Amino acid sequence: DSILVINCGSSSVKFSLIKPDNGETLLSGLAERLLTDEAVIKIEHKDEKKSYQLTSPFNHQTALAVLVEQLQSLNLVDNIGAVGHRVVHGGEQYSKPTLITPEVEQEIKQLSALAPLHNPANLIGIKACQAAFQHLLQVAVFDTAYHQTMPEKAYIYGIAYSLYQEHAIRRYGFHGTSHYFVAKQAAKQLNKPIEQCNLISAHLGNGCSITVIKNGKSVDTSMGMTPGEGLMMGTRCGDLDSGIIFHLVNSLGYSIEDVDKLVNKESGLLGISGLSNDCRVLQAAMIDDNNEQAKLALTVFCYRIAKSIASYSASLTELDGLILTGGIGENSSWVRSEVIKQLSLLNFVLDEEKNEATRFGASGNIATSSSRPCLVITTNEEWVIAEQTSQLLTNNAN
Amino acid sequence: DSILVINCGSSSVKFSLIKPDNGETLLSGLAERLLTDEAVIKIEHKDEKKSYQLTSPFNHQTALAVLVEQLQSLNLVDNIGAVGHRVVHGGEQYSKPTLITPEVEQEIKQLSALAPLHNPANLIGIKACQAAFQHLLQVAVFDTAYHQTMPEKAYIYGIAYSLYQEHAIRRYGFHGTSHYFVAKQAAKQLNKPIEQCNLISAHLGNGCSITVIKNGKSVDTSMGMTPGEGLMMGTRCGDLDSGIIFHLVNSLGYSIEDVDKLVNKESGLLGISGLSNDCRVLQAAMIDDNNEQAKLALTVFCYRIAKSIASYSASLTELDGLILTGGIGENSSWVRSEVIKQLSLLNFVLDEEKNEATRFGASGNIATSSSRPCLVITTNEEWVIAEQTSQLLTNNAN
Ligand SMILES: Nc1ncnc2c1ncn2[C@@H]1O[C@H](COP(=O)(O)OP(=O)(O)O)[C@@H](O)[C@H]1O
Ligand SMILES: Nc1ncnc2c1ncn2[C@@H]1O[C@H](COP(=O)(O)OP(=O)(O)O)[C@@H](O)[C@H]1O
Predict the structure, then answer these.
(1) Least confident piece of the model among A186-195, B99-108, B128-137
(2) Does B293 touch chain A (CB under 8 A)?
(3) How many other C-beta atoms are found inside a 10 Å radius of the C-beta of residue A48?
(4) Complex prediction ipTM
(5) Are A15 and A25 in contact (CB under 8 A)?
(6) Is A255 on the interface with B (CB under 8 A)?
(7) What's the pLDDT score for residue B71?
(8) Domains, chain A, ranges and CATH?
(9) Which one, B53, B210, B234, B341, has least CB within 10 Å?
(10) Cβ distance A386 to A18 under 8 Å?
(11) Residue A21 annotated in active site
C-alpha cells in the first residue's frame, strides 16, 4: 500500500503518493494560486509533468477532485492505504501521529489560536480529503510533535508563568518531522543507535531552525511559540529586540499589523539585501556583481546560524556531530563554509573539497577526519509522514 | 584631584567622589524617591552614613544642593576636578568619553528616541550639576561606547536595511563601561596585554548582558538597541518570540503599553517565580522552602546565560576565559555553578571549592587548573568613569 501525503496551505496543496517502506514517490505535485482564477495544479508521475488550469470554484476541493481523477486514470487509487496530513501546530496535546476523529479536528481548530496562519489551512485540507477519499483513514502528523520532549528550562519563556498555564504560551518548535528524519539518518551514518546520538541539526530552507538532540530526543530548538523566532530566514527576521517593536509603534507610527508584516514577510535575507529572499539569487549577486547588500545579508544569516548552533552546546555534554539539511543546507557550499568556519572552538573543521562535492542530493560528511562530523543529509518529511501514517494504521489494526 | 561621578535616573541620583588613579571612594551615596514628598538623600563618608529628608521642591536640583553642602562641610569641594556622567545611549556618535558642550547635550537629547527612559534622566543630572558646579567641566561617559567596535554582522538586525539607515535601528549594547573594566582586570590576571585577550564577559546584575571581546575589543553583545534584549533578567524577559507580542495584542486584548510593561517590568525572574526579581530571595526560597517556581526561574535564567555564552564561541577562534561580574556574577555561587556546568563542551570545568570561596568582594579564578579560566571580578563602573573623565581633562589640557 502507498500513503497519500498532504501539506495544505491557505492557497496551496502539496501532495505526494509514497511507499512507506522505502520512501519511493509514485506521484507528486502541487496545486497553487487557489482561491484565484489563476488556480493551477501540477502533477508529476514517472518523469511526466502535467499541468491543469482549475475551473470554478477555484478551491482546495476542486484541486483534490482533479487529483482523484488523475489517480484513477493512473490506476493508483486502490493502492492508497490512508492519507497523512502535515499539521503545523499540535500544541502540548500531540506528541505523536494521531488518527483524525471529529474530536481531533476540534482540537486542531482550537490550536489555531497559536498558529492562525497554518492550522486553519491544514483543516481545509483534512476536510477536502475526507470528501474526496471517504473510505480512507486520515492521520495528522504534527510539525511540533518531535519537540514535545524538550525540558521546561527550554520551553518556558521569561514572562509571567500564568501566560503558560492559562494561554499555553511556551516554545513549541517546528520542522520537527525534518529534524527527526535527518537525526535518524545521521545515526545510521555514524553507526550508532539513535538513542545514543547527541546532535545539532540545522534545517535551512525558506524557514530555518536549529534543533539540539540528546540521546535521540529533541531537547531544544530555535523556533518558538511561532515559526518566527530564532534564526534569520528568507523573509522573517528571527530574534529581534522587542524594544524595536515598541519603538516602531510608539515613535515611527507603525500599527501592530504593519510590524507583523514587516518582521514576517519583508525581513530576513530579503530585508537586508533589498533584493531577494532566495539564497541562490543573493549568492549570485554577491559573487557575480559584487553586491554589498547581498553579501551583508548572507553574512548576517551565516553568523546567526553559527551562534545558534554554538549556543546549543550548552544543552549537551557530548556532541557527535552537526547535521545540515533543507534547500540551503543541502546545496549551498558557501553558507556551509561560512557557518562551519565560525565553529572552530567546538572543533568543527570543514573539508573544502568535500563541501563543494556534496550538493544537489549528494549526502555525507563534509568535515575533515580530525573534525567532529558535519553531515549533509537530504531531508524527506513526506517519507516520515507516510511511514508514521502507515505505522499508526498497523498498530491500530493489531 | 578627585572626580564626582553621577548616575542619574528619572527619580534617583547615584553619586560618588572618586580618586581616578586608584579608584578610592572618598564619599558616595544615593538620592531616591525624587519627585515625591518622600525624597531622601543618603551619603556615606568614611564609614559614616547619613540620611536627609529633602524639602520642597523634591527634585534632582535640591538633592544636589544638599550634596554640595555636605561636600563643603567636609572640605571636599575644592579637590573636585570635574564631573563625570554616566550616559546610557551614545548612539553611533559616541565611542569615547566626551566633554559636554551645548551641542553634545543636544545630541544626547536627540538620542532619547532610542533610550526614552534613560537619556532624558541623564540630561536632568547634567543640567543640575551644571547649576551646582558652575566652575567644573562635565564629561559624558556612554554605556554604549565600548561596543562601537562591533562588526556589521553583529549589529545589523534581520529587518529592512532602511530602518538602520534612516532610523538608526541597530544593536548598540549596554553595560559597556562594566565589560571594559572587567576585561582590563582579566587581562592583568591572565598576564596578557588586553590587545591579545579573547574573553566572554557576563555582567549579571538586575540587568544582565554578555559581551564577547576579541583582541580587547567588544565584537558582539547580548543587549540590543535597548537593554531589553538577550538574557532573561530581574524583571525583563530578554529574547522573546515576537509572535507572542502579536498574539498578546491580537488575541488576548493587550495594548502595546501593556506588553511593554509586561516584558520590561513584570517578567524575568519575577515573572516566572511570581515571587521576586531578586536572586537572593529566589535562592533562599528554592533552598529553604523547596519553592518550585523559584527553582524554575533560576534554572531558566542559568540555562539562558549558558546558551548565550556558548553562542559567542562563534565570534572567536581563541578563547582565553570567561568573566563573571555584577551582583549575581560576583556573589551567587549557585548561579555560577549551574552556568559553568553547562559549558563543558567549551572546556570549562568549575572548582566547587574555589567557587564557594570566591564571593562578597573576593575575586579570582573559580575553574579547575585544566579548565579555561573562569574569573570572578568585582566590577567598578564609577572608577572607569572617574578615570576616563580625568584622562579627557589631561588630554584636553595638553
Ligand atoms: N544550489 C543552491 N545554492 C544555494 N541555495 C539554494 C540552492 N538550491 C536551493 N537553495 C535555497 O534553498 C532555499 C529553499 O529551501 P527549501 O528547503 O526548498 O524551502 P522550504 O523551506 O520552503 O521547503 C532557498 O533559499 C533557495 O535559494
Ligand atoms: N549573595 C548573593 N547571592 C545571590 N545573588 C546576589 C547576592 N548578592 C547580590 N545578589 C544579586 O545581585 C542582583 C543585583 O545586582 P547588582 O549588580 O547590584 O544590580 P544592578 O544591575 O542594579 O547594578 C540581585 O538580583 C541580587 O539578588
Answers:
(1) B128-137
(2) yes
(3) 9
(4) 0.97
(5) no
(6) no
(7) 94
(8) 2-142 (3.30.420.40), 192-381 (3.30.420.40)
(9) B53
(10) yes
(11) no
